[in-house]
Design goal:
single chain; mainly alpha; 434 Repressor (Amino-terminal Domain); 53% helix
Length: 72
């Protein structure tokens, strides 16, 4: 995988489930264009919508929390 880990994960899981992008968009409640852009690795996607897509496969993305000294 390259820099688009989330998009590639969504694409792989979507295909494993047998969904087209349009079917996945409908079933997940997301827009078709958003699904296309997510799978292509668009950098400016909303985390809430990414989590909505990941929820279809029992997963979610959460930001890392910093420890007490400001480091991750």
């Amino acid at each position: 995988m390259d820099d688009n880990l989330i998009g590639e994960y969504i694409r792989r899981k979507r295909k494993e489930a047998g969904y087209s992008q349009k079917e996945f968009a409908f079933l997940s409640g997301l827009g078709f264009r958003f699904v296309q852009e997510l799978e292509r690795g668009k950098q400016t996607v909303r985390l809430d919508k990414v989590n909505q897509a990941l929820k279809m496969f029992g997963a979610r993305l959460v930001p890392e929390e910093e420890d007490g000294d400001g480091k991750r």
